Amino acid sequence: MVDPIWPPNWPETIDRFVYRRDVKDTARAVLYRLREPIGLTAFRIWEQFSTEPTESDRVSLTDFYLFDLDSVLVDHQIAAGERARLRVLRSLLRIQEGDLLRHRPEEITRIMEGEISQILQDDQVDAREAWLQVDLQEALGLSYDEYSRLARATIDTKIRPWLEGHRGPISVDLQRRLVALDSLIRVEASESSP
């Protein structure tokens, strides 16, 4: 039986990442142990190591998580199985809230800009896009304040051209865009995804 959270090409995904990034030491061993993550034995992957992962290992494991997250976000949504896999990976790789932003702030910014731009493409935020924000905040390991700050920075770069080109009364089109932007930064972290 195939586990629904691990895609069929999971071992190849790990191999491709390790090969392309030339991952070394403990991080490499941990990722290879995750090639077949079925069962609770995966949660004991750290038992074989006598030391905690080095900072270099932590960065490599963070990079792998972001590599997987990028593949999840290709369709600009996070399905239930993908959400579960990301949660399990964060636990297995010992990624804590704030680690991704601390180790790879430019990657987090890139992901946020891409997803927010996609959400705002039609100048409105529908229910699916609102849930994506909640999932994205969790997947990126961001607090509500961190997510809001990054979302506002992205929104600021999008709204500036609209406002700079505007003269006179606010048009209905601009009002609609401002409402969409306002609703985008109101992420309810306490709610759970459907």
Strand content: under 5%
* Rg of Cα set: 19 Å
> Major sheet, described briefly?
none
Gap from first CA to last CA: 25 Å
What is the structural class? mainly alpha
Subunit arrangement of the protein: single chain
Please trace the helix and strand order, writing H or E for each element: HHHHHHHHH
Give the uncertain stretches in residue-range form: 187-194
Give the overall average pLDDT. 80
- Tell me the count of domains: 2
Shape: elongated
Describe this structure in words.
The chain has 194 residues and is mostly helical. The chain folds into two domains: 95 residues, no CATH class; 90 residues, no CATH class. It is built from nine helices and no strands. Helix 2 crosses helix 3 and helix 3 packs antiparallel against helix 4. The longest helix is centred in the last third of the chain and has 21 residues. The two termini are 25 Å apart. The C terminus is likely disordered.
Outline of this structure?
With 194 residues, the chain is mainly α. The chain is built from 9 helices and no strands. The protein folds into 2 domains: 1-95, no CATH class; 105-194, no CATH class.
Annotation keywords:
194 residues; mainly alpha; 2 domains; 9 helices; 61% helix; 0% strand; disordered C terminus
What layout of secondary structure does this protein have?
Blueprint: H1 10-21, H2 25-33, H3 55-72, H4 80-92, H5 99-103, H6 105-119, H7 127-139, H8 144-164, H9 172-184
